[in-house]
Amino acid sequence: MLTATETSAAVRIAEQLASFEGDGYVHFRGVFARDQVAAFHRMRESAVRDWCFAQGTSDVPDAVDDLVERFPRAGLAAVSHPVLLGFAEAVMGPVVQLDSAVLAGDPPVEPARRGEPVVWHRDRFGFFPLGVYTRPQSIVYLAYLQEMTDDVGPLRVIPGSHRKPIAIDLDARNDPHPGELFVRTRPGDVVALHHNLLHSGTRNISGGERRFLGFIYNMSSLIHRDNFDGPNCRALIATARRTNDRRILRLLGQDPLIVPRQNSGFVQPPDAYWPTWHAEDARYAAAVDREGAAVEQAREILT
C-alpha cells in the first residue's frame, strides 16, 4: 500500500503528465533554491571568462556548453535533479540521456523591440506534428535565473502545437502569434517542453543579460551534443560503473542495454515495459549498496 506521501507524488506526476500531453509543457516552480540560482550565475560568469580567455576575445558568447565537464559537482546535480530526471523518465521511459547543457545569456536589445518574439521554432529531433500526441524523443528544460518580466523577456509557447499541425510562415517567425501564451517564471523555476512544441523567447530590453540554464534530455539511442570524453565526465562514468548506476551511465552516453530495451518487439505500449526495467536497474544497483552509499556520502559533504 502506498503511503500518503507516495500517493500525493503519484497524483502530482499524473497531473504533470496530463498537462504535458495536452499542452506540451510543464511549469515546475521553485526547483532550484536561491543559493543554487546564485551559483549558476557565478558559473555563467566564470565560464564566460574562461571561454573569452581561451578564444583570445572580449566578445561574450551567448551560451557556454559542456556544463557537466566544466562544473561536475553543480552540473551533474542539476541535470540529474530527481524531479526533472524523474519526470523525463515518466514521459520517455528509463532511456534518458543528456544531449546538452548550457548556461545562456541573451544580451539586451534596443527598447523599440520590446515584446518582440525572438524566433518561433520546434526543437532538435522534432518534426511537424501529425495531429496526435507522440512520445518525445527529447525534452527541453529551461531553468530561469531571474524573474522573467516583460522587460527581461518571458517564454512564449503555443499550447497544443506539439500535437497540432500548426504552421508559421517563414517571414512571420519573429511576430506575435494569436495562439501564444506567456509563461512567467521566477528565479529557480524550470519549464519542460516537448521538442515539437512551438515556442520562442521574448526580446530582452532590461539592460542586462537574460540568463537561463538550458539542458536537453534525449533517448539513449540518439547522438548527443555534449562531450563526455573529458577527465571529469570519464571519472563520473567510472564511478557510475563502480556503483552499478545505470541511470547516470545512460545520462552520460553509456547505455549497455540500448539494444534489448529499444528493440523490445513493440507488441505493447512503451510504458508497459518500464516498471520491469526500473526494477532491474534497482536490483543491479542494490548489489553494491555499500559502495553507492560511500559515494553519496562523499558527494553530500562536497556539495
Domain unit count = 1
**Poorly predicted sequence stretches spanning 5 or more consecutive residues:** none
CATH domain class name: Mainly Beta
Q: So how many helices?
A: 10
CATH arch. level architecture:
Sandwich
User: How many distinct beta strands?
Assistant: 9
Written description of the protein model:
With about 300 residues, this protein is an alpha+beta fold. Helix content is about 40%, strand content about 15%. It is built from ten helices and nine strands. The chain has a six-stranded antiparallel sheet. The mean pLDDT is about 95.
Write the layout of secondary structure elements.
Layout: H1 4-23, E1 25-28, H2 34-55, E2 63-64, H3 67-70, H4 72-79, H5 82-92, E3 96-106, E4 138-144, E5 155-157, E6 181-183, E7 190-194, E8 199-200, E9 210-219, H6 231-242, H7 246-251, H8 258-261, H9 274-286, H10 289-302
Antiparallel strand pairs: 1-7, 2-3, 3-9, 4-7, 4-9, 5-6, 5-8
Question: What is this entry, summarized?
Answer:
This protein has helices at residues 4-23, 34-55, 67-70, 72-79, 82-92, 231-242, 246-251, 258-261, 274-286, 289-302, and strands at residues 25-28, 63-64, 96-106, 138-144, 155-157, 181-183, 190-194, 199-200, 210-219.
